[in-house]
Design a protein that fits this description.
- The structure is a single chain.
- By secondary structure, the protein is an all-alpha fold.
- Helix content is 63%, strand content 0%.
- α11 crosses α14.
- The termini are far apart.
C-alpha cells in the first residue's frame, strides 16, 4: 500500500523534488514488498495476503509503464490463485456443509491444501473478490504486453462466480439466481437473438463486476483478431459471431452512465470504464462488424470522456488508450468516406469533434503511458491524408 501511495503522490505533485512527493521512496518500498512476497511463499502462509499484494505490485508496474515486469509478476500470482482453487468457488453463499475442499497443490502428491475452506461468509467473499482482482490484472497485463494471459477461461476451467456487491455479503442477502460465471458472459446472446427468457428479477451487477466483464470481452475480442493474423489455422469465424453477440448483450444490460452520476451512485467511474471496454471490444472486431456499428461505438465512447474524472483521463487504466485510439481510427476512416460522398458540413464537424475528444484524451494518457504517442502519430497521419483529399 505504501508503494502505491508513493505512485499516487506523483499525480498530485508531479515535481519529484516537491517536499510532498514520495516518489523518492518508491524503490525502498518496492524492495520491501518483494521481500514480503518471497517470505510469505517461503513459509507457505499468508497466501491471501500474497495474492492481494501481487495485485498491488502488478498495478504499480503497469502504471509506471513497466509492462514486462508487471506481466511476469502477475503470471506467478495467477498460477498461485489456480493452485489455491480460487477459480472453482461456485457459490457465493457460505455453507460449511456444502463448501467443497480445495484441490491439492500438486497432482500425484499428498493432499496438501494450500488454503483451508473459508471460515465464514466474509472470508468467502474476500476470496471471490481477490480472485477477480487477479483475473482483472491478468487481462490488463496480457493486453499491454501482447502476451497470452495467465488465466484462460476454458483451459483452466474457470467456473468461479462473479462478485456481487459488497453489501450483499455483509448483510447475508445473496441469491443464487443473481450469480453467473465468466463463461456465461462470454457466451451470452443479445436480446434480439436470445431464445432463453431473461430473469426479470435478477438484481444489477456491481460496477466492479461490470468492469470485469468489459475487460474480459475486450481481451477476448483483441486476442481473437490477433489470432486471425498470427495463427489463421486456429481462427474460427464462429468465435467472432459468439463474441460479437456477447458484447452486444453486455452493452444492452449496462446501466446508463448519466443515470448513475445523477443518482449519486458510488464508483460510477468504473461504470464508465465498463462502457468504454465494451465499446472498445466492438471496435477491435474491425471489419467483422458493420461500419455503422463501429462509428456509433466510437461516437458513444467519445461522449463518455466528457463525464470522466480528470485524474482518470490523466493516469487511468492504460487499456483506455487502446480503446480511444481504435475509436479515433474508426472515425477517421468514416470521415474519409463522408468527404468522398460530399456529406454536409454538420456531419463532418460532428465527427471532427468526436475525433478531437478521443485524441485529446489519448494525448493526456500518453503522459503516463508514452507508448500511446506512436498511435497518436499514426492517427494524425491519417487525418492529414484526409485533409489532403479534401
Amino acid at each position: 500500500m505504501y508503494l502505491v501511495a508513493c505512485y499516487y503522490t506523483s499525480i498530485a505533485f508531479p515535481d519529484p523534488n516537491s517536499p510532498y512527493s514520495l516518489v523518492r521512496l518508491e524503490n525502498h518500498f518496492l524492495a520491501r514488498a518483494r521481500k514480503a512476497q518471497n517470505d510469505s511463499l517461503a513459509w507457505c502462509d499468508r497466501l491471501m495476503d500474497n495474492l492481494k499484494g501481487s495485485c498491488l505490485i502488478t498495478g504499480y508496474f503497469i502504471k509506471r509503464g513497466r509492462y514486462v515486469e508487471g506481466h511476469y509478476h502477475q503470471s506467478g500470482a495467477s498460477r498461485l490463485a489456480l493452485s489455491c482453487g480460487l477459480h472453482q468457488i461456485v457459490s457465493p453463499i457460505f455453507d460449511p456443509d456444502v463448501q467443497p475442499p480445495l484441490p491439492p497443490a500438486l497432482a500425484g502428491q499428498e493432499m496438501t491444501i494450500l488454503l483451508p475452506p473459508p471460515a465464514n461468509q466474509i472470508e468467502l467473499a474476500d476470496r471471490i473478490m481477490c480472485f477477480w482482482g487477479i483475473y482483472l490484472r491478468d487481462k490488463v497485463a496480457s493486453i499491454v504486453t501482447g502476451s497470452p494471459p495467465g488465466l484462460n477461461e476454458e483451459q483452466d476451467g474457470i467456473i468461479a462466480v462473479l462478485p456481487r456487491p459488497a453489501a450483499e455479503y455483509e448483510t447475508d442477502d445473496l441469491r443464487l439466481e443473481d450469480t453467473e460465471s465468466i463463461m456465461d458472459v462470454l457466451k451470452a446472446a443479445p436480446s434480439s437473438t436470445n431464445t432463453q427468457p431473461a430473469l426479470a428479477d435478477k438484481r444489477p451487477d456491481s460496477h466492479f463486476t461490470s468492469h470485469i466483464k468489459g475487460m474480459a470481452l475486450y481481451e477476448r475480442a483483441r486476442t481473437l483478431m490477433n489470432m486471425e493474423q498470427r495463427a489463421p489455422e486456429r481462427f474460427n469465424q464462429g468465435d467472432v459471431a459468439t463474441v460479437h453477440g456477447a458484447i452486444q448483450a453486455f452493452l444492452e444490460n449496462l446501466p446508463p452512465v448519466r443515470d448513475a452520476i445523477e443518482d449519486g451512485l458510488p464508483f460510477w467511474s468504473s461504470l464508465i470504464s465498463a462502457h468504454t471496454f465494451g465499446l472498445g471490444a466492438l471496435l477491435e472486431l474491425k471489419d467483422r462488424v458493420g461500419q455503422g456499428e463501429q462509428v456509433r461505438a466510437a461516437k458513444q465512447m467519445s461522449l463518455l470522456i466528457v463525464g470522466m474524472p480528470e485524474q482518470e483521463s490523466l493516469k487511468g487504466c492504460c487499456v483506455y488508450g487502446h480503446c480511444w485510439a481504435a475509436g479515433a481510427e474508426a472515425l477517421v476512416a468514416h470521415r474519409q468516406k463522408l468527404v468522398a460522398q460530399r456529406a454536409s458540413e454538420e456531419e463532418i464537424t460532428e465527427v471532427d469533434g468526436a475525433i478531437a475528444r478521443l485524441m485529446a484524451a489519448t494525448k493526456k494518457l500518453s503522459g503516463a503511458y508514452p507508448n500511446f504517442a506512436f498511435q497518436l502519430s499514426h492517427i494524425q497521419q491519417l487525418m492529414e491524408m484526409t485533409s489532403v483529399s479534401e
